[in-house]
Amino acid sequence: MWLRILLGFPAVYFLSGFPLARLFLPQEKTFSLKLLLTSFAFSCFLTYPAAVLTTMIEGQSAAAIYSVHLPHSLLSLAIISLPFWFLLWKKRLPRLHLPSLRKVHLLLALFLILYSLFVFVNLNRADVLGDDYDLGYQAYNLQDGILDARRAYVISFNTHPPLMMTIKHYGMQLFYPWGLDGLSDWMFRGVEGMMGLGVILTSYLLVRDFFSERTALLTAALLAVNNYLIFMGRIFLREIYLTFFLVIALYFFLHKRVFLAAFFLGCALLVKASAVILLPVFILWLLKEKRVKELAVVFSTLIAVYAPVVVYNVGAYLVTGHMDATFSWLFHLPNPFLTGQSANPLLTNPSAIISILTDLYGWPVFAFFLLCLVIFLFQRRHQYLLVWLVSSLIFFCLGPLREYYLLPLTIPLVIILADVFKKLPILIVSILIFSAVYSFSSDSAIVRAYSADRGWKNLSANLSKVYLPGDCLIAGQGVSDLPLRRYLKTDDGVKTYLLGPNYPHYYKMCTEVKDPEREIVITYNNIGKVTYEVY
User: Fold this and answer.
1) pTM of the model
2) In 10 A of CB 96, how many CB atoms?
3) Strand 530-534 versus strand 472-475 pairing type
4) pLDDT class for 337, splitting at 50, 70, 90?
5) DSSP 17
6) Distance between CA atoms of 22 and 39, rounded to whole angstroms?
7) Cβ atoms of 531 and 483 closer than 8 Å
8) Closest Cα to residue 193, out of 246, 161, 144, 236?
């Protein structure tokens, strides 16, 4: 397994996109951080067309959906990336050299190691209960919206756009390609930590080029111990993917590489529609600098990248009457995956945002963020960060809100704090120590809710000694079918829909057994641990 991971991850997440990065950055003479991160970003994007090609090669049948995908997925990625390698070979650019190591690189490596320890140590602790399993089910087998199977060949999904799913598909397949049930819990989450490292490196690069080396190092250090970024590196959700593409898009925009900036903003849109929070920065700065013609480049690129999702939603509406969560929200259509919101979000969301941020950052860090914002306003520097913050807050105050939506706010807040306090080392060290202790101790209520060991792994081991043929299970109050499917391999509604009711599964629900010998009720006890009672 480890050989497959050590060889597969660099091949998928670096080498596949390297020729595109090299072609767009021919001036790079070393294996620079910019080249590395651009290769990573392009490689992540290429998983999308490759995954679509995989579904076309394998087909739409249930047997194809539950087959071994890794050979087809790697073949598809090779087919997609080989033309770019050919173009790079024809271009005959000068050979790249290894960069010279400096003390700053050692410090940066130390921060990355620190973040990795926070994220990857004990990653198997939390049970896979909700979105981890639900999204993992779709990503692993490239299923469009579960029951829709592969009707759209994963051009998009009926919840959100596809890019996060296709990036995740390759990671899960490299961890274990012989079926979703064989994955350990940490394999459902391992890719997010990699994206978190990408966020730290890209933020460092942005701040180094447009602030100073000192501020960049402080930014990397603050992000490495930031509870919000660590939390999102340990669960399978879209926002950490979204944040990476937003930061690299801003980086290239500030370097006046408008096409690359718009392309990576398009990639962010392919992760989630909330990527529009960065669009006002592009529009306002291009208008301010009278680069109006480049607005056409931005919008034409975004339309081209996002067009498959629009096509999917139009087709889905014509055929099935539904659209994905974003389009359903825009056009007031029913959607079972739509996040609920209050009747007056402007009245409730601001206080909810404060509650979420204070919980995930800790009160002292949140207070320092607010203080730095006030100081930064008077400095009138790097105002694109303020536009990013303001547009984000407006967006989140008007729409649905959940605790993990606000991660993109962390980047401008941390950069501003690092810039304002860069000459106050004692204060910075105090914030770093508090953040590290807060992250390590899991004092955040939100983190505890998502990272709890609810006892499902122990239940699975214990129940196997009690359950007999003729018995059946009942889901008690508060127990959903997702952990039952994950840990007990119970009746899977998706497989029943695709394979028929007689596919093999050991544990039976009482809805499947006519006259059971015993009924075993699965429920949570008074301390939140899953348990069972036999009747």
Assistant:
1) 0.95
2) 13
3) unpaired
4) low
5) T
6) 8
7) no
8) 236
